[in-house]
Amino acid sequence: MLLPASAVFFSGCCYGVESDILGLPTFSIYANPVETNRIPVQLIEAGMETLFFLFLHSYKGNRLYAYLAFYSIGRFLLEFWRGDPQRGIWILSISQWISIDI
After folding, report:
1. How far apart are CA 61 and CA 35, in angstroms?
2. Nearest C-alpha neighbor of 8 from the set 49, 55, 43
3. What was the pLDDT predicted at 64?
4. Which end of the chain is more exposed for a tag (fewer CB within 10 A), N or C?
5. What pTM value is reported for the model?
């Protein structure tokens, strides 16, 4: 069985929540239903990291603190779209609690 290219980005723990507006057609062996439109969280995070790199490349201050601040905010927001609610405590995921702690 030949899988579409989007299957690479939508398999595993962070395949994205279902969305008719922002979602891309996907095939995931981990998500139910198997074929649906999902938000491409992994691709969004890759783009976010690229923007962080471009910003930090010209940043003159402390790059470590700037990266930690930007990444924690970005990761906190992306966690709402990941689609794996079983990995959380209360209404937030473990990664969101760590982002708040930083």
Report:
1. 46
2. 43
3. 94
4. N
5. 0.67
Mean pLDDT of 86-95: 71
Rounded CA-CA distance 42/13 in Å is 10
Contacts by residues 30-34 (CB-CB < 8 Å, ≥ 24 positions apart):
31/83
Q: What is the rounded CA–CA span in Å between residue 78 and residue 76?
A: 6
pLDDT bin (cut points 50, 70, 90) of residue 1 is very low
Q: Which two tokens stand for residue 25?
A: 């057609």
What end-to-end distance do the CA atoms of the chain give, in Å?
A: 44
Tokens of 54: 């471009």
Q: Using CA atoms, how far apart are residues 4 and 65, in angstroms rounded to an integer?
A: 39
Relative orientation angle of helices 94-101 and 63-78, to the nearest 10 degrees = 150
